[in-house]
Design brief:
The complex is a heterodimer of chains A (492) and B (97). Chain A is 39% helix and 13% strand. Chain A is globular. Chain A contains 18 helices and eleven strands. In chain A, helix 4 (102-110) links the parallel strand 2 and strand 3 (113-118). Chain A has a domain at 3-253 and 465-491: Amidase signature (AS) domain (Amidase signature (AS) enzymes), CATH 3.90.1300. Chain B has three helices and two strands. Chain B is 39% helix and 4% strand. In chain B, strands 1-2 form a two-stranded antiparallel sheet. The chains are: A alpha/beta (492), B mainly alpha (97). The interface between A and B is large, with 72 and 54 residues.
């Protein structure tokens, strides 16, 4: 057991009480990162991290700054000044940003120590953790490397699940933090759209993109949101609302809280063992005083979440990545005109998967198709959000299993037209459509592999999400779980 | 809607200034019947064509003007230090016109 395995608050207390030093903590994190066998890292920032840790080591730890001296990692689609930032794509190899993303800046200012940049699906466009330029990222819970961890924030999830760092930054456009969190027993939080600045995050589909993050318990998640959610004028979509003190307001009392379980989503998940555990959690919540009710929604809307997401995200991605031109960014393979330069670099720089997604985006934006595809998807999004907003008028939270099963195998093919795929495997994107705060928490283990549950609430009601999640930690006993200690926790 | 075939997909790729291998076009063409069936589901939503398109989750109107405070921009050395090709104190880009 190392201090690195404790919660952020406990590590902070250990630092305050001089039980461990910042330098030793950083060295331990780097040592663990170097032993990584899951391909979690684009780069390990040993020199930079040790320099900062040495600088902070003999300073006085500020009592109210929980992140002072805490090691962390960030997905490689956050700009980091003078540190190569590739977005997991060959087209950005060698790109050294001139500035830090706002969230990186906040963490730097707080004294947190960035020990590495993590792998991702190329430009965050993917959900399998397989399409980044460094190859597949593996799930720490499966040493045989048969089951994926999922993506796109695969490396960040793997680093926290493997006990390398207590928290990690990721991004979530469809479910890119919340799905890998389910596959690796983590708390994956995507707050309300606009609550955390996206300045310096590589855009994928800005109407859906969120900064999100992984922790190993709910309390740490609230602490991190306090730090990251400050207003930032550099992001014009950043909210002007006064932020709550999410940590101070943590309260596991759910008495009288109204919780909706969407009937059609619940029915699309058929795994008996997972359903049993989920039903037990519902009983637990009822015993805690929550009002749990099954709510029916229009199935046509639910089966349309995935195709709606697919069209909108692919279409937005085509324009957002138009700047990757081989002139301002990326390697140069020559060409007589700017079109030729772009053509050469984009043909060589993008992988096959991302090009196929771009083609779908381009196809849906063709003038002959725009009405039937892109505009219709935007209209469907409106109806889907309206339907969920109706649920939130009566209920504090929607609570469901986060996925239909444990992490799938790399070579597992699924029927992409059945309800399990269309609803259960992809419904989390409704959280991005409506910009809702949405959190995945670990719920249990099946054959040694974790699975999670998801809690979503109305915009800016992070408090309801945190409080329900905190209550459920009493049921799951999985706070602070990682690959290093899960067997002990599982037995409880 | 435009019928999908290899030429249409190639046109869609070329509009974004890249190309794919024949194998990738074939793979995408194979995938398209599933994608098309998924997209057809959107059309089944009652009243979808009468709805207004949603471009952002909710309104986020920016109503402030930044104060006109002078600030120090990036130093020239900072701008140049990560550039791949520097000549006479300026970043040299590939000749494209």
């Amino acid at each position: 057991m190392s201090y690195l395995d404790l919660s952020i608050r406990e590590i902070h207390e250990a630092l305050l009480n001089k039980k461990v030093s910042i330098l030793d903590l950083t060295k331990e994190a780097i040592s663990r990162a170097k032993k990584d066998t899951n391909n979690a890292f684009e780069c390990i920032l040993e020199k930079e991290a040790l320099e900062k840790a040495t600088k902070l080591n003999d300073t006085i730890i500020p009592k109210d700054n929980y992140f002072y001296g805490i090691p962390y990692v960030a997905k490689d689609n956050f700009s980091t000044k003078d540190i190569e930032t590739t977005g997991g794509s060959n087209i950005l190899v060698g790109y050294m940003p001139l500035f830090d993303a706002t969230v990186i800046k906040y963490l730097n200012e707080a004294g947190a120590i960035l020990i590495g940049k993590t792998t991702l699906d190329e430009l965050a466009m993917g959900g399998t953790g397989t399409s980044g330029h460094k190859g597949k990222t593996f799930n720490p819970y499966d040493p045989s490397h048969t089951h994926m961890i999922g993506g796109s924030s695969c490396g960040s999830a793997a680093a926290v699940a493997d006990g390398i760092v207590p928290f990690a930054l990721g991004s979530d456009t469809g479910d890119s933090v919340r799905k890998p969190a389910s596959n690796s027993a983590l708390v994956g939080m995507k707050p309300t759209w606009g609550l955390i600045s996206r300045y310096g995050l590589f855009p994928f589909a800005p109407s859906l993109d969120h900064v999100a993050y992984f922790t190993r318990n709910v309390e740490d998640s609230a602490l991190l949101l306090n730090l990251l959610s400050k207003h930032d004028d550099n992001d014009e979509t950043n909210s002007f609302k006064t932020r709550d003190d999410y940590f101070k307001e943590l309260n596991s009392n759910v008495k009288g809280k109204k919780i909706a379980v969407i009937k059609e989503i619940r029915e699309s998940i058929t795994d008996k063992e997972m359903n049993k555990k989920f039903n037990e959690s519902l009983e637990f919540l009822k015993n805690e005083g929550a009002i749990v009710e099954e709510v029916s929604m229009n199935k046509d809307l639910l089966t349309s979440i995935f195709p709606t997401y697919f069209v909108i995200s692919c279409a937005e991605a085509t324009s957002n990545n138009a700047n990757l031109d081989g002139i301002k960014f990326g390697p140069n393979y020559g060409g007589k005109t700017y079109q030729e330069v772009m053509y050469n670099v984009r043909t060589k720089g993008f992988s096959g998967l991302i090009k196929r997604r771009f083609v779908i985006g381009s196809y849906s934006l063709m003038s002959e198709n725009q009405h039937d595809l892109f505009l219709r998807a935007q209209k469907a999004r409106h109806l889907i959000v309206d339907a969920f907003n109706e649920v939130f008028k009566k209920y504090d939270c929607i609570y469901l299993l986060a996925a239909p099963n444990v992490a799938p195998k790399f070579d597992e093919a699924s029927d992409r037209l059945n309800n399990e795929y269309l609803i259960a495997d992809n419904y989390l994107a409704f959280g991005n459509f409506g910009g809702y705060p949405s959190m995945t928490i670990p719920l249990g283990f099946k054959n040694g592999l974790p699975y999670g549950a998801n809690i979503t609430s109305k915009p800016y009601d992070e408090k309801s999400v945190f409080n329900l999640a905190l209550n459920l930690e009493k049921f799951t006993h999985l706070a602070d779980v990682s690959f290093l200690n899960y067997k002990d926790k599982e037995e409880k | 809607m435009k019928a999908v075939n290899k030429a249409v997909l190639k046109d869609a790729a070329n509009r974004l200034l890249f190309d794919m291998s024949d194998e990738q076009y074939d793979m995408l063409l194979d995938e398209f019947h599933i994608i098309q069936s998924q997209l057809d589901l959107i059309g089944k939503i009652k009243g979808v064509d009468e709805a207004t398109p949603m471009t952002f989750p909710f309104d986020c109107t920016v109503t402030f003007l930044r104060e006109d405070n002078p600030s120090t921009p990036l130093k020239k050395e900072d701008v140049l230090k990560n550039a791949k090709n520097v000549q006479d104190g300026q970043i040299k880009l590939p000749k494209v016109v």
